[in-house]
Amino acid sequence: MSDMLERLQRERIVAIFRGVEDRYADDAARALIDGGIRMMEITLNTDGALGMISRWREKFGAEAGIGAGTVLDLDMAKEAVAAGAQYLISPNLDESVVVYGNEQGVPVWPGCMTPTEVVRAWKAGAEAVKIFPMASLGVKYLAEIRAPLDRIPMIATGGVDLDNIAHYFKAGACAVGMGSKLVNLTWAREGKFDLLTARAKQFAEAARGL
């Protein structure tokens, strides 16, 4: 098990920053860290994502794991690693990305939906997979595929909120990925970083208390 996977399983929440404007990004990240969130994913379809990853490694690297999301192919993986990403997350499975990550010592947690994709990712060298889109598949689906594939750590992404986060962990998720329910961009744009911190604290306490 990599140090980053161990950290993921301990922290249990990955905050997904998608579409955050650069001028709000640092304060938003700081707000979540202050609330107890220690895993940050910046999606590569966010303007300036590579620069943010590099900057966050310098500013927040001692406090949080900084990763790249929406890593669709090998070229994007190479750019993310060069920027300093400590882990790569994808909505899809590209075995070449998994192999490259292993070569670089950077964990890759690829997106999978079917049992076949999960096992393919595992055989390619992924130590965990992202089950996506969970909001559409539903938590019962997660429980069903975890039954035969219980050796493979699964990150549930999509549909998680305070009233159902316990259900995802009960169904077997090792962690959850959270976007807008946690990273509220409206609050960031309005300078309401105290609200981001308070929300982060609620989720962090809920996850670690389970």
From TrEMBL:
Pathway: Carbohydrate acid metabolism. It comes from the Bacteria. SUPFAM superfamilies: Aldolase (SSF51569). Keywords: Carbohydrate metabolism, Lyase. Belongs to the KHG/KDPG aldolase family. Homotrimer. This is Bifunctional 4-hydroxy-2-oxoglutarate aldolase/2-dehydro-3-deoxy-phosphogluconate aldolase. It comes from Paenibacillus aurantiacus.
